[in-house]
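Students often ask why we bother encoding 3D structure as a string. The short answer is that it lets us treat folding as translation between two languages. Here is a chain of 242 residues written in the first language.
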Amino acid sequence: MSGQTESKAYEIVQNYVMELYANHKLQPGDIIFETALAEELGLSRTPVRDALGRLAANRFLEQYPGKRGYYMPLLTFQDMRDAFEARECLEEKIGWLAAEKAQKKDLLMLTHYNNQEVKFYNESSNFQYMKANDSFHLGLAHIANNEYIEHSYKSVYWRTQIYVYYLGPFINEEKKLLNIEDYNSDTPHEHANIIEAVANRDSRGAAKTCLEHIRSTFTNRLSKQYSCPAGLFEKLLKLEGK
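And here it is in the second language, the structure alphabet:
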């Protein structure tokens, strides 16, 4: 199988699994079998197995030792906090390095993804919005041009995304239920600020903006939502499924 075909198969499987999960048709703890998934997608088992293996390597899926199949990780506050702490460290350095190394084509790429975020956010296309968000952050890590950081970042990034994808974007009903009406998350605008700092070769500013962006996501939204009372959390999950 060619590298291009493998990449396409991975993209198909990744998007399918993530969209099911974002829409709560796939729940934490649910098992995914490569044979059933291959039949659903009309793909052979080998590329599906390889794609699921890559998702597991990036910590978006887990695999039972010695058993067949993969499963969605169970969500815990401790795991979420640890993953976001690790991401803060990496993302801050990524912002710094990107400001030092970015070329014109890199800025155009980041601006393209940022424009997509604005477009899909305004259209309430939640999954497409999340994919544009993924492309922005992974693209920024690539611009930093350090293979060790980029490799480490991918697994940390996708681990944080099991929480971001499942809990979804902030909506007005959630703000009211959590009594945090004063929090106005604006990821596209925050990303635009990162692009501006990178374009200005402001390493310190880019690092600071990246760090604040990740802390805002965790502290102001995910941690408050995930640690709320069980009954309230169930209401939030129903809202996310709309």
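Translate back mentally: The longest helix spans residues 77-101. Keep this in mind for the problem set.
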